[in-house]
Structures are given as structure tokens and as C-alpha cells.
Amino acid sequence: MKKKIVIFLSYIILFFNSNLLSNEVSKYLKIGLLAPLSGEYSDLGNSLLYSLQLGLDEINDKNVFIIPRDAGFSDETKLDSAIKDLKSQGINIIIGPLSNKDFAYVKKYNDLIFISPSNITPEFKNNVISIGVTLDSQLLALNNFIKKQKKKKTVIMFPENQYTDFIEKKIKQLNLNYLKVFKYDPDPQVLTGEIEVLTNYSQRKKNLELRKKMFQDKEDDQSIKELERLEQLYTLGSVNFDSVIIVDFGSNLKSVLTSLAYTDVNTRDVLVTTVNQWFDESIFYENTIKTLYYPSIDYKEFKKYNENYFKKFSTYPDEITILTYDALGLIYYAWKKNGKITSINDFSFKNKIKGKIGTFSIKDRRVTQDLEIYKVEKNKFTKF
């Protein structure tokens, strides 16, 4: 079997022009951008525009144009007006919308193609392609990683909230039903008690006390040494799982990690993993579990992108902008490969694609990322 060729995306030069008109339409690639350029989320909109300008350092193609429009945020009136304006200028491919909540609305524009940074679904959704880092890709990457580590008793943990049904659906779709599911209350005070039950903490604590009593009245050297060893422990006995997948973020994730540490879950015996954290360094300082693994995009490219962005604009970008940056490269590649873009099917490729977020494939109307596993240890992110 021939080795698949990895296609390196070229990135486009951008020229922002709201009144691009030409008789030689076939020579130009006009791409619309839907972004919140005013209001509460205008900083995000500006960050998207700045990220696209970084393409100026990658390629010099004066036939490519980006036409941005203010679509607001969760504002159907602004979104509709922006799409109609872009369509009136002969644009048939648009970056956006940002949120999957707008997918049902934009499907009525079935003659347009939308490339969204949303990460909710990897499948083509009517006329929308999502290129965000999906939970599907993350769970598959973690599942493969855990198997390679020869772990056989995995617990997948996630909070009871508005995403519970979504996560359960993904577990079923990916045939991960063999995983033990543990749903927890996001309230930290309730959470700790629930994890005590999961880890059989009370019994393991009793086991230690009973074991210590066996040696407390003995004076031989062996008994004294054993008692000294036991005094260094918090519990005695193992938990009934050897790996966990925590589907949570931010302070909630840190609460789960703290509870696991409190109940004396030893990372020498239990592999602790979570989902993509976008290399959030705050986890260094509040993480009581000292070794943590998660799947993510390419760290070197992510770091390089952030550094280039800061060098040019003296500020750091929103994480989502690297996705739209790759979306532009993807569109440009499809345009150069096909000579034009007429339908969503023009984005199905035989070969894998490499962008700033890493390697991914678009096949059978589905986007799949090949994510790397990173290890968080000693205040570092290390590719495992």
C-alpha cells in the first residue's frame, strides 16, 4: 500500500475590500467572512481579521480577496443581512458562522458553502463544514493512546450539564460503550463525595488503619519498618480502574483533579487523561495531579502562530483564530486544485492535509484530525 502523501496547505494573501467587482470572475477567489465586528464580541472579530492578515507572510496572490461582514453574535438579523450582502457580490464560499447554533439558519442558503471553526460535529452538515477540534477526534486519539498503554479498565468522567446528552451520544457513535461512565455534579462540594464513592476511598482508608494496628504494638525491626512505611500512606488498596478520561475544562477540571488527588489516586497506577486544553498554562499551578495527558493540535505550530501574531499585533490571539487561519488555507488549496469551487463536495480529498492545527483528513463528508498526545508534567507540555 502506497504511503499517503501529506499535502501542505499554502496560505493566502488577503486584501480587504468591500466592493470587489470584476468581469474576470474566474481569475479571482472571493471569500466572505462572518465575524462579530461590533458589540460585546468585537475583540474576537478583530482577532479573526488580524489572524487572516498573517497570510501575507505565506503567499503573494493578488487574485485572492477576503470580504468581511459584521454578523454579530447569536444575532439572526445581522447574520442574515451579512450573508445577503456577501451573496450579492457573487461570493459562494464563506468562513463562518462561528457557532453551530447558526447552522440550522444558514442551511437555507443552500447555494453557498460555509466553513466553520465550530467543533460540534465532524460530518458535513448540509452546506456547512466544521473544522474545529471535535470531541470525536479527541476521544478516538485518547482511546488509541490508552490501549497502547495496555490499560483495560477505563472510566470516562463528565459533568451533568447541558452537554451530557451530547457526550453520551458520541460515546455510543464511536462504539466506546465498553467504557465505564461516571457522571458527576459540577458543584465541587458534591463532587468530592461522589469521587470518594468511585474510588472506594472510605474502605481504602479503613484498610490502612487496620493494617497499621497490626504493627503498632510490635517492637521487632521488621514491624517497626513496616509501620513507618504505612505512616507515609493515605490509603491502602487499589482503585477498580486503571485509567480515566475527564471531559471537562477550566476550574471544573481542576476540581476533578483535586478530588482524585485527595482520594489518593496514584498516577503511577492510574493513567489520567483529559480532552484538549489549548495548552492552558494555568493547569501548571492548580493541578494537584502531577502527570496529565491530553490530545491536541500541533504545539510547535500553535506556539509559532501565537508568537508571529504577537510580533505583528502586540497582543495574543483567541485560540479559535488558528482554525479560521487554516480554513483559508483549505479554501485556497481546494480552489487551486479544482480551478473553482462550486459545491461542498469540492472539499473531499483522497490525501491528508497538513495545516497549522496539524494533520487532518476530509473523507466521506467527514473531517477527522490526527491529534498528538501531550503530557503535562513539571510545568511543561511535552509530546508523548
Written description of the protein model:
- The structure is a single chain.
- This protein is an alpha/beta fold.
- The protein has 2 domains: 189 residues, Response regulator (Rossmann fold), CATH 3.40.50.2300; 122 residues, Rossmann fold (3-Layer(aba) Sandwich).
- 37% of the residues lie in helices and 20% in strands.
- It contains 12 helices and 16 strands.
- The protein has a 5-stranded parallel sheet.
- Strand 7, helix 5 and strand 8 form a beta-alpha-beta unit.
- The longest helix has 18 residues.
- The N terminus is likely disordered.
Sheet of most strands: 5 strands, parallel
What is the overall silhouette? Answer: elongated
Query: In which order are the strands of the major sheet placed?
Result: 3-2-4-5-6
In percent terms, what proportion of residues is strand? 15-25%
- CATH architecture of the largest domain, please? 3-Layer(aba) Sandwich
| CATH fold-level assignment of the largest domain | Rossmann fold
Are there runs of 5+ residues with pLDDT below 50, and where? 1-25
- How many discrete domains? 2
Q: Average pLDDT across residues?
A: 88
- Estimated structural class: alpha/beta
Tally of helical segments: 12
Strand tally: 16
The CATH homologous superfamily of the largest domain is termed: Response regulator
At the first level of CATH, what is the class of the largest domain?
Alpha Beta
In percent, how helical is the residue content? 25-40%
Distance separating the two termini: 27 Å
CA-atom Rg in angstroms: 25 Å
The H-and-E topology, N to C, reads as EEHEHEHEEHEHEHHHEHEHEHHEEEEE
